[in-house]
Amino acid sequence: METTVSAGKVYFLRENITGNKNDECTFRFEQGKEDIRFYFEVRDADIISPYTADNEDIFDGDAVEVFISPDGDRTHYFEIEVSPFGKRFWAKIVNITGVRLDAVDRIAPPYEAKTEQTESGYRAEIRVPYAVLERFDTEKYLINAYRLDKKADGRQLLYALSPTFCRRFHRPKYFLSPERG
Q1: Is 156 exposed, middle or buried (CB count within 10 Å of its CB: 0-12, 13-18, 19+)?
Q2: pLDDT tens, residue by residue, 97-142
Q3: Distance of alpha carbon 126 from alpha carbon 36, whole angstroms
Q4: Are 145 and 66 in contact (CB under 8 A)?
Q5: β-strands 156-160, 25-31: how paired?
Q6: In angstroms, rounded to a whole number, what is the distance separating the alpha carbons of residues 112 and 152?
Q7: CB 48: neighbour CB atoms within 10 A?
Q8: 95 and 104 in contact (C-beta within 8 Å)?
Q9: Which pTM value belongs to this model?
């Protein structure tokens, strides 16, 4: 598995438990002057996301998300999520052990998200200003990207840029370091 990720390069997210290749979701990111941007393209025939407001538990339905540690500290990071219909979720996470969440502080999402339905699913664009990423350091930040795929039978399939090999995404040891300079 990779330990670094390159800005501008398109990646396919992998099945999270096995790490197997999957071609249903692409991810890429770009670093701008004022913000960092994340792009997802998702193939999904049965979009399930009944949420109508920001900061609802959109992670229980279809969604894409990014975890970002702004300064490389894997115990403190932000959870950024977007539903296929543009509902957003933002939280500050404290995860001292790397396994169990010690604190989750939901905050009104301070970022922009655009979503668009496509013939085969949806696409999402997320723009996060550097100013809201406390202690953001272009030389130290870490990321991982995810997709949650809710099925009509109640199952939820998980996909990741860097799989965590379990039923949860909150495993910061799998965060990736963007290639520098």
Answers
A1: middle
A2: 998 899 999 999 999 999 999 999 999 999 999 999 999 999 999 9
A3: 8
A4: yes
A5: unpaired
A6: 29
A7: 17
A8: no
A9: 0.96
